[in-house]
Amino acid sequence: MADAAVRTKKPATSKRTPAGGAPTAAHSAQEASDPRIDVAAVTDLLLGTWAHTRRESREMIKDPAFWRIDGQPMPEHRERVLSQLHLLVEHGGSRRAFPKEYGGGEDNGANLAGFEELVLADPSLQIKSGVQWGLFGSAVYQLGTKKHWDQWLPGIIDLSLPGAFAMTETGHGSDVAAIGTTATYDPETQEFVIHTPFRGAYKDYLGNAALHGKAATVFAQLITGGVNYGVHCFFVPIRDDEGGMLPGVTSQDDGVKGGLNGIDNGRLAFDHVRVPRFNLLDRYGQVDEDGTYSSEIPSPGRRFFTMLGALVQGRVSLDGASTTGAALAEYIAITYAGQRRQFDSGAGTDEVVLLDYGKHQRRLLPLLAQTYAQFFSHDELLKKFDGVFSGRNDTPEEREDLETLAAALKPLSTWNAMDTIQECREACGGSGFLAENRFVGLHQDLDVFVTFEGDNNILLQLVGKRLLNDYAKQFKGADAATLARFAARQAAGKVFHGAGLRQLGQAVADLGSTARSVEFGLREDQQHALLAGRVEQMIADVAAALRPAGKLSPAEAAALFNAHQAELIEAARAHGELLQWEAFTDGVHRIDDEGTKLVLTWLRDLFGLHLVEKHLAWHLINGRLSTQRAASVSRYIDRLVARLRPHAQDLVDGFGFEPEHVRAPIASGAEQQRQDEAREHYRALAASGDAPVSEKSLKKKK
Amino acid sequence: MADAAVRTKKPATSKRTPAGGAPTAAHSAQEASDPRIDVAAVTDLLLGTWAHTRRESREMIKDPAFWRIDGQPMPEHRERVLSQLHLLVEHGGSRRAFPKEYGGGEDNGANLAGFEELVLADPSLQIKSGVQWGLFGSAVYQLGTKKHWDQWLPGIIDLSLPGAFAMTETGHGSDVAAIGTTATYDPETQEFVIHTPFRGAYKDYLGNAALHGKAATVFAQLITGGVNYGVHCFFVPIRDDEGGMLPGVTSQDDGVKGGLNGIDNGRLAFDHVRVPRFNLLDRYGQVDEDGTYSSEIPSPGRRFFTMLGALVQGRVSLDGASTTGAALAEYIAITYAGQRRQFDSGAGTDEVVLLDYGKHQRRLLPLLAQTYAQFFSHDELLKKFDGVFSGRNDTPEEREDLETLAAALKPLSTWNAMDTIQECREACGGSGFLAENRFVGLHQDLDVFVTFEGDNNILLQLVGKRLLNDYAKQFKGADAATLARFAARQAAGKVFHGAGLRQLGQAVADLGSTARSVEFGLREDQQHALLAGRVEQMIADVAAALRPAGKLSPAEAAALFNAHQAELIEAARAHGELLQWEAFTDGVHRIDDEGTKLVLTWLRDLFGLHLVEKHLAWHLINGRLSTQRAASVSRYIDRLVARLRPHAQDLVDGFGFEPEHVRAPIASGAEQQRQDEAREHYRALAASGDAPVSEKSLKKKK
């Protein structure tokens, strides 16, 4: 069912000219008298559980004061973003996650949802907010206790206390356990001595460190009584109110970066800086006056991961922000592709609209399907996050699931944002390279998402290890007979795959008309079986390969693991893809409107089949698809993109962006106006009788 | 044979610490007592036919005046690059291609080779030079005649006459034939009237248009006597000596771009601007006083493509510059990966050097192989270019081959540069995102290479059409019996593929030990057969699919072509990959030194196998590989990357970069120094007896 109100809001984009004899038929669902999606309902669906907060945030950032200014020199950009943070405080945007006692909303899901939308205004604003309230503030709140909250949360919330989150060191990125900074307890003065013992232990890449931070939450090895109790977090003042460095604290500027230049990233070093015992954020580990250490979590490893897990929200929010960033790029590129004409088709008609080219559909529409999937999977992630952090479902199992889910989804969505934005920029040619059209800025700013808050490959490796553990648990306590049966099944599977017996079955089933059977065997259930089967098989394969490790020396075992590292990461990626597909499918099942459900089912099919196509060789080698069926995957995708073509504008309109969020001139309808002007020029010229004839027509006459 | 002189030049990188029990064994060929490559000889090989000029150019840009300053605001950057162009003139860098009569060197190959190296200093410098001498200057030289050269070449060469190359229009990017600008001859005054009839016909994205250009070579529809003779090029003054716009000429600034912000790109519009008849660059088409048009090329289509073909050098030089850019990124990332340690392996030893991780080898080394291939294929392209433009081999067939070769290679190398630089940046984590480490600047500046000088997809489509034509020629004049035999062979082929008979043959051959047979069947000849067979089959498939087009209406035929557009582009890409592989292989065959030959053969194998792996599903579906052999491709690649690991530093040293070209702090040895300092700190601490014990060891004692 079409929502007329939404459609008429965008006259420039809905005014599409039928292309006459152009390669594909209808340009819009309206023309095709196809099923229509209910755009407004799709927007509700995509905005998800915290749609209200997202809309509030989007409304706020219609104010140009929040927008990125392309080419603004770094110093001015940094000051601008700081002022935007103050503006955000005024709008109440900084308090949603914090306790009501301090003026907060205690609404973790809404908090992240609201922050994620800031990517539309300026990703520097989003990430600097994340530094202040999501990392620095969160460290105080999640790792500290009431006394710390009373002391610092009000200043954190109202930004009178801007701070840096000092975890990463130059010498250690994602390997936090190995950091070199020490915090040694001195019982004489009841102080911790924070110290940077060598250059590699400088805290690095910290937002707010180069200029604006007055304090930092510093992660350091806690040493008391000659024992190192591992990494803990300390609140350390770094600048006075005039912005001068406090004694013993050194700051260096990281300088220009690939993007996010509105944030003052820098390095911090500490030369025996003393802070009161009070400043240990002591929720998970305490040191009493005489230096005795205690913790309710006895295992150092589990304590470390608990502390780090308390900071998972960074990853969660990157999954959401990169999805929204990719959606914006798609809105711009697809809107433009529906208006821009280039080359005539040889059919003697008007030049062809970009989105009517087979290649253009192929390059853009699967990315759109991917982004839709991410909206659904991100909402699931956000709900799980909210469940844990609200305390409603705060169990160790739920926390572990949340961390694994975040570690599986964040890499996929951040990489996808990069690929999508780049493909969209290329699909718009030279105009895609102009900063005003947004792609290049988004690409530059979102680039670092793939390596910060946990490097993507390292996160996937964590997921892979978790999957291996879960796999191994199946066999815990299993008797010899069970294991033997399992081994036999595995071996049989391998033989079947290798000799192609399963393939033969499919080949027989496929013997009818190829055209008619294209979609057969590639519907929802089969997509799920292919995607899920791949994860299972890949994990089983890695597990089998690693089985001898128990009998090897540590060095040999490490070498064996290393030889399978790339495969394990691939398996984790497959797992993440499956989760996205499942979330998309669940989302589609919840839709009532028939037209919407049908079109979104095609889009989900495109997502599923695109994943199968990406890993087609695997499915063939492992006997999951016959060569015939494998060949039909690409043909099915061709059919799906053509079928979705008339819905492309509706689908990007479904993101619910308004002109103040888009801002790109090429998606404003200007291109359509230019074409109308050109067409009118040629029409008038022809009517005037003054039009020159072509040399070719002249030659024909001769 | 190792070149000691080259090795000792880089003490920081050659000082590698053996990793004890770390996952892989040796870190350098030296330690492995493996064959060594002769680094200096490899540098000669990679610098290619015009090594001398490349070295001259690299020597010149050691001067920091040529270097990009990260974060420099756009206006200052533009002025800096203009001043660099003057510096280049002083160094004689602007005259190599032009006739000796005007002080030039008449050396086309050397000219491009010298320009390509400028990418190491600042890609804005490279591209702005390209605008002035490669496009604007080339248009005057290649499309004009002696009278034009006398008039303008001296000023072009010494930069007293900076100019823009006004081909692209806002409304028409790669589709030059459809531009809207007109040049109408007025016999009364013997002038051409240059006119922009509507906004879409503004000349757009032109370097030198926003600020510095005094003239432009403007492409316009030549109209005389009421007939449009198609696109020709005109010399049009646009600014006076004080920088003011001339009457009727309007300029707009394109503003901030994704990169190359040292270039003043802008738009130009002409309101009935009159230029003398003299200003038609009339090498391929002339208009005499009374307005009569003449050309030695009677076909309008062939004339158009001849004029455009005269400007092929832009594409050729992008192939070289993007290869050098990718090589720089690899030098930095691989040097860093050989020093940087992260996470211990679990084997209780030192932390592991990044390049020892299986995943890290897998992500970086195939890209290195790709770049090596490109150095070889680019030299072939440059030789062909030089042959044609020197007049030595200037035949229509050679020109067509040159254009097809450039159109096949430029897309692959420019895309590869983007992928490589991005992967390298990610492989260096947060430090890869700092501008000082070069990746992000290279990525931003080289981005537009993929869509300018001919959009990559459009170029590949041209290549695909050429391949289809060549394919069709086989059957020209063939009798019915020949065609029937061919058709039967095709059909048989399909049946064989589908039913897997060929696969069966391979499966039988593969029955021995899998480990031993991994490399069997994937050596040079088979790689060539797989890569070449794929091109042939893909073209044959598209040709078969398009065969009915002759019987269809133009609209239906266009729709049929469009349905196979993506496949045709893929076939062209496969063709480009084959050309790169062949050039690499020819290059390896020319090597005398045994060690060098062996290592580079592995690298070529890695390139070939990586291509096969990328398209593995195709080879399976089309019955070119059995599932067993297909599965062994990835295992073979794993073995190759491990085998190449000790040679990685030698291989990037082979690019011959000096510190002034690299400039990235992370590739300077600073990381190694930081680690040595950290290691010394912990050693001294342990020796002092003051080191804290770990909580874990404490628990064990209890």
Comma- or semicolon-separated keywords:
homodimer, 702 residues, alpha+beta, six-stranded mixed β-sheet, globular
Verbal overview:
- 2 copies of one chain form a homodimer.
- By secondary structure, chain A is an alpha+beta fold.
- Chain A is 56% helix and 9% strand.
- The first copy, chain A, has 29 helices and 14 strands.
- In chain A, strands 1, 2, 3, 5, 6 and 9 form a 6-stranded mixed beta sheet that branches. In chain A, strands 4-8-7 form a 3-stranded antiparallel beta sheet, with no helix packed on it. In chain A, strands 10-11 form a two-stranded antiparallel sheet.
- In chain A, helix 12 runs antiparallel to helix 13 (396-427), helix 16 packs across helix 20 (524-546) and helix 20 (524-546) packs parallel to helix 23.
- The termini of chain A are far apart.
- The model of chain A is unreliable at 1-25 and 490-516 (pLDDT under 50).
